[in-house]
Design goal:
Structural class: mainly alpha
Number of strands: 0
Order of helices and strands: HHHHHHHH
Radius of gyration: 24 Å
C-alpha cells in the first residue's frame, strides 16, 4: 500500500489508510502465530490421539477397523507435512511478535491522528509509511496449510480490533469467516446428505 501524497491527504483519508494497514499487519501477525501454533501443537495432539486409539483398540474390536487405520495413516502424513516447517518455527514466532508490535504502534498512530491538526498529518503519514516498510520486511510469505482459517479465529475473535472496525466495518460472512471454510462446510454437508438419503432413495426404488 502506498500512501497518498501529503498535499492531498485529509485526516479521514489517513485514518482509513492506517486502518487498512492495521488490518494487513494484524492479520499477518496472527497468521504467523497461527503457523507457529500449528507446527508446535498439532504433532503432539496427533501423537496423543494415535496412542489413545491404539490403546483402546486393544479393548474394543470396533476400533481396529480399516477406516480408523486409514485415518491414523492420514494423520501420520499430516504430521510429516507439518514437520517440514519445524526448523523455521522460531522465525514464525519472532516475525509474529514483531508484527504484533507494529500493530500496536498503528493503534497509537490511529488515535494520535484522530486528535491531530492538519499540520501534523504529513509527519503522521510518513510514520505510517515507515511501519508499512517494516511490515513488508518482516513478513514471511510461506505459511502452513489451514493457517488462514485459524488466523481468522485468532484475529477476529481473540483480538481487540474495535478501532480497526471503526473504519473497515467488518461483516460476518464476508470478512470474519473464510470463504474457503464456508465452501468446505457446504461440500461436506452435501456429501453427508447424499450419504444419508441416497441409499434410502435407492431402497425405495427397488421396492417398487
Amino acid at each position: 500500500m502506498t500512501c497518498q501524497s501529503n498535499k492531498f491527504m485529509s485526516k479521514d483519508d489517513l485514518l482509513k489508510l492506517i486502518a487498512d494497514t492495521a488490518y494487513n499487519v494484524g492479520f499477518g501477525a496472527k497468521k504467523h502465530m497461527a503457523t507457529f501454533d500449528i507446527v508446535v501443537k498439532v504433532p503432539g495432539l496427533i501423537r496423543f490421539f494415535s496412542v489413545t486409539i491404539g490403546i483402546y483398540s486393544l479393548i474394543f474390536d470396533s476400533l481396529s477397523s480399516k477406516f480408523l487405520s486409514a485415518s491414523l495413516l492420514v494423520l501420520g502424513v499430516v504430521s510429516l507435512y507439518i514437520s517440514f516447517y519445524n526448523s523455521q518455527k522460531e522465525e514464525y514466532e519472532v516475525a509474529g511478535v514483531e508484527l504484533i508490535q507494529l500493530f500496536n504502534e498503528l493503534k497509537k498512530l490511529y488515535y494520535r491522528t484522530k486528535q491531530a491538526d492538519e499540520e501534523a498529518l504529513p509527519e503522521l503519514s510518513e510514520r505510517l509509511k515507515d511501519i508499512e516498510d517494516k511490515y513488508y520486511q518482516q513478513s514471511i510469505s510461506k505459511q502452513i496449510l489451514f493457517s488462514d482459517w485459524y488466523c481468522h479465529y485468532k484475529f477476529f475473535w481473540q483480538y481487540q480490533i474495535d478501532w480497526v472496525d471503526e473504519q473497515k466495518h467488518f461483516k460476518l460472512f464476508r470478512d470474519k469467516i473464510p470463504l474457503s471454510f464456508s465452501a468446505t462446510l457446504l461440500c461436506l454437508l452435501i456429501v453427508l446428505i447424499c450419504w444419508i438419503f441416497l441409499p434410502v432413495a435407492n431402497n425405495d426404488l427397488l421396492s417398487l
